Structure formats: C-alpha cells, structure tokens
C-alpha cells in the first residue's frame, strides 16, 4: 500500500510538472577574451531522491527491525568550476557530496563532506584535440564510459556503479590521483592513465581481515594502469572534460564501439592453502557499444542504447555488497547466516562487485512529449556465488522539463537477495525499490 501511494504521488508530480514551462537558463560563464574561446564557468547540480525500499532480511534501522523503509536524500549535490584559461590550458574542479540521507555518517568517512571530487589541470599539445596531457585528482578511467560518467546527463536514474570498480575502496568516490594523456585522432578517442591509488585502510571502514577470499591488500603499494579506446562511426563525443555523456537527447548522432582495461599488480591479497599470504593482481576488461541518435529531428524523438560485457578479476572469490545511499544501518543476522566480506548486506545492498563476468544493457526512447521510458538490466555471474546468476532490473520514466537542466525521473528497481543456510549461499526473495528523483542542473 505504501508503494502504491508513493507511485500515485510520483505520477501526479510528473504530470503536474508537464503542464509548466521552464524558462531558458543562461550558463554562469565568464568570457576571458572577446571571442569567448577563453572562459571560466560554474555549474551546479542537485539530485533529490524520495524512495520506498523493501529491505534485505535482517535489516535494522537505528536498532529497529524494518522490512520496508522510506527515505529522502541527496543522491548528488555538486558544483563544477572549469575554464579554458589560455588557448591550450584547461583547469577543472568539482566540489560537493553524495548519498546524503538520514544514515549519512561523516565521522568515519575519508570524505569530510562536502569534498573535492576533481582537481585537475590539462594542457593541449596539438593544434586540435589530438593530444592533451593532464594530472591531478580525476575520475578519468579505463574500462568503460560508465567508469567516468557525466551524472547530469545519464539516461537511467543512476549509473551502473559496478563499472566504477574500486569506488570508495582505493579511490575517493571513483576519483584517483592520476596523470594521463587523452585525445581524438580521426575516428578514434583514446585515454591512457597512470593512477596512484589510496590505501584501503583510509576509506573510513575497517578492512576485512586476511581470509581465503581475496580483498584489497593492506600491505604494499603499486600504481594502477588504465586504458580506454573508442571508435566513433559518426559524430565525435564531447571532449571538454574527461566525463562521458549519458545521452545527448538527439542532438548528436553517436554510434561507438569501445574497449577498456584496468591493471594493478598485487592489488589484492588472500590466505593461501598453507596459511601464508598470497598477493594477486587486479585485472578488468570490458568491450561495449553505445548508440545515441535522433530518430525524427522534426519531432525531437531519439533513442539511446548501450550494451557492454565486463570481465572483472579482483582475485579469488572476491565479492562486495553495495547499497546506493543505503536507507538502513545495521543487521540482526549472525555471521553464520549472512555473507561475510566486503560491504554491508542490509537495507538495499546486493552483490554489486565481484570476480566474474557481467553483462549490462540499457535502452531509452525519447518521444515528442519529452518523456523517455527506459529499461536496464545487469546480469552477473560471480565466482563466489557458484552457479548462481545474479540479475538486477530497472524500469523507469524520465520527464525532461528543460532537457537535463530540469528533469523528473521515476524508477522501479528489482534486485536479488541472498542468505546463508547450512554454510551454503542460497537465493532469497527478489526485492524492489521505487524512487522519484528531481534533478536541477544549471
């Protein structure tokens, strides 16, 4: 009944908003020369979530067992500051916070909220965009476009976070201290990155003890190497910042294929058969295709679609639960009947990261009335779950009041749950979350 009331209220909000007109918003942009080729610009983004969630078995909210929860939160609140300060020099900062709800706790968090997400400088060596070199704190990454997403333009309610493979483990909300080269040559778009990861001990959580399953190593330090290569059949993607657009809403004709990878030697450790410590490399690989193009320019209809395969290798039987802006903060399950390892298993969490194989796909259709229904699916087979395939599905609807500047989204997520019975991991009931988002992006 609770979900039905939320759904009715959400639909009412969307249709009420559709009758209103939103005036054009001028960019907060200062010209540094007469032509405007040199500039400094500020943007702001806020994503408010109103959500009902069916909680995982054993979930506690402030010490009380709750089968369902309702929360209001700020999924992302950000400010960007960027500028082309000379003909070839570019500077970029991003400041803000994420996942701010009633359960947010900054006391044990590496990121004293708000915090700098990005702080980088970049210099273009070539006459056009063939080669740029840069460095600093940045999300620039190998592997996938969703490893470095432009969150103000995403098609679905949220990005597939599993593609941000080390998020909040050895990075700062997917950002690392890096040096890089990137550019566009002909139909190719490339990026090569060398990153200096943070130690797992500084992520604000107590790292798991050395075990027979792999976890991030608490001794030693090695650099991380990343690469990403896109072939662009038609229009070229935007190249101002390292972030990759979710949807151009029909303003470009994009058809791409891409490959990417991440490698870090001795990033993981585990207890060997003889009780000794063994170190294992972290190796990830992905191949993907992205289509985002107009269908009927006169009617402003468009399609956006994505399909990607990911081979993720964190070492033997690695598995990590994650719940986006988790509405709960505890569990009454014992270690004997819950999956132990990385990440909390309560609230809306599910096995998001692991050693194994993942297929992710999404599709959205923008109609002439500015509505975009979409669907997404994540199908994963992680070694630690044995022969079980874990799948998560999303169905949603965006309404663009003014493109991505002002947007309403309604999303229904269906996810798996797992329990441990007699020492074996078994599938539990499938659970749902219903979320209404209001996004403003200036």
Structure description:
The structure is a single chain. This protein has 442 residues and is mainly β. It has a single domain (2-441), classed as Porin, CATH 2.40.160.10. The chain is built from one helix and 25 strands. A 16-stranded antiparallel β-barrel has the order 2-5-6-7-8-9-10-12-13-14-15-19-20-21-22-25. The protein has a three-stranded antiparallel beta sheet with strand order 4-3-17, with no helix packed on it. The longest helix has 17 residues, at 2-18. The protein is globular and about 70 Å long. It starts with a helix and ends with a strand. The model is unreliable at 13-25 (pLDDT under 50).
Q: What would you call the shape? A: globular
Strand content: over 45%
Radius of gyration: 22 Å
Oligomeric assembly: single chain
CATH superfamily descriptor: Porin
Identify low-pLDDT runs: 13-25
H-E string: HEEEEEEEEEEEEEEEEEEEEEEEEE
Count of helix runs? 1
Domains (count):
1
Largest sheet properties: 16 strands, antiparallel, barrel
Number of strands: 25
The CATH topology label is: Porin
CATH class: Mainly Beta
> Distance between the terminal alpha carbons, to the nearest Å?
36 Å
Q: Name the strands of the widest sheet in spatial order.
A: 2-5-6-7-8-9-10-12-13-14-15-19-20-21-22-25
Q: Bin the helical content.
A: under 10%
Assign the structural class, choosing from mainly alpha, mainly beta, alpha/beta, alpha+beta, or little secondary structure: mainly beta
Mean pLDDT: 91
Q: How do the helices and strands line up, and which of them pair or pack?
A:
Layout: H1 2-18, E1 28-31, E2 39-54, E3 59-61, E4 64-65, E5 68-84, E6 89-100, E7 115-124, E8 132-138, E9 176-185, E10 188-196, E11 215-216, E12 224-232, E13 254-271, E14 277-296, E15 301-313, E16 319-322, E17 330-331, E18 350-354, E19 356-366, E20 371-382, E21 390-402, E22 406-415, E23 418-421, E24 424-427, E25 431-441
